[in-house]
Design goal:
Helix content: 10-25%
Distance between the termini: 57 Å
Largest sheet: 5 strands, mixed
Shape: globular
Structural class: alpha+beta
Order of helices and strands: HHEEEHEEHHEEHEEEEEE
Number of helices: 6
Strand order of the largest sheet: 1-5-6-7-3
Strand content: 25-35%
Radius of gyration: 20 Å
Number of strands: 13
Length: 270
């Protein structure tokens, strides 16, 4: 069976997900892909964002409520089969609003995480993938990046295939919901537990959606992790000065403000 044949069977849903995965492995023999090694540092870490919707304004009290779901609550997703946990995140905050499918009156909690250690991601369906694509790469791309949930049974197997091997920590791919240049990331739970650090959380009310992928929001609370608890400040985030006369440079990232010191180092809000 060729890659084109397998793609056609998946389109017609004429093959079980498990058999689909078995054939993926057979077809992958001799195939070459280029994974991406990221080298963050203590001064220049990778920043990623994840959001969750909490209805009726009830905010999470523990850090564990913001990370990947436990196995018994893990439902079928683009990159995971049922009862298999995976950590979904985005390279930028606004993308998480789109991915969460939030609605007016929802309460959305946006969390910022950082990675300080080297890690490896397998790219799929993005400008990072070499072109022209082989038939096998077209198969992976079309199944994994198909809009909506129609292919989830198969896209989750594509993810399982690409996450094979201890050295691969996750995947990077374009935001399917956003349909733009933004990127999403999925990470293995083991890597998350060892190397991902929660920095802060911000709570928003979704007050309006004037057009697709555009949100009117009201920031109403800000939280800092303390062990496995979240210390909510009952206020919006702000910044403090270390000494009298210190200057902070405020720069817009297109959706929020960030502060930098005299050495252009990011200053976290509190």
């Amino acid at each position: 069976m060729s890659s084109k044949d397998l793609l056609n069977e998946a389109r017609k849903r004429q093959i079980s997900p498990d058999e689909f995965l078995k054939r993926l492995w057979k077809l992958s023999t001799g195939q070459k892909r280029q994974a991406i090694r990221f080298l963050p540092t203590q001064t220049k870490p990778t920043r990623i964002f994840r959001s969750r919707i909490f209805n009726k304004g009830v905010l999470p009290v523990s850090v564990s409520e913001l990370t990947y779901p436990p196995i018994d609550k893990a439902t079928l997703g683009r990159a995971n089969s049922p009862n298999k946990s995976i950590f979904y995140a985005s390279a930028g905050g606004p993308t998480t609003f789109v991915e969460s499918k939030c609605k007016v009156q929802d309460t959305l909690v946006l969390s910022e995480y950082r990675i300080y250690d080297p890690y490896i991601l397998n790219p799929i369906g993005s400008k990072r993938v070499q072109t022209p694509m082989s038939d096998f790469e077209i198969l992976l791309n079309e199944i994994f990046t198909f809009p909506g949930e129609y292919f989830y049974e198969y896209s989750s197997k594509v993810a399982e295939h690409l996450l094979g091997g201890e050295d691969i920590n996750g995947l990077i791919y374009p935001s399917i919901a956003g349909q733009n240049e933004s990127e999403n990331i999925v990470l293995k739970p083991k890597f998350v537990d060892q190397f991902l650090k929660l920095i802060n959380t911000t709570a928003y009310h979704i007050t309006g959606i004037p057009q697709q992928h555009k949100y009117d929001v009201e920031e109403f609370d800000f939280g800092i992790p303390q062990e496995d608890k979240i210390s909510w400040k009952k206020r919006r985030k702000n910044w403090s000065f270390k000494y009298k006369g210190q200057m902070l440079k405020m720069i817009s990232n297109g959706w929020s403000w960030e502060a930098f010191d005299e050495k252009d180092m990011l200053v976290d809000p509190h």
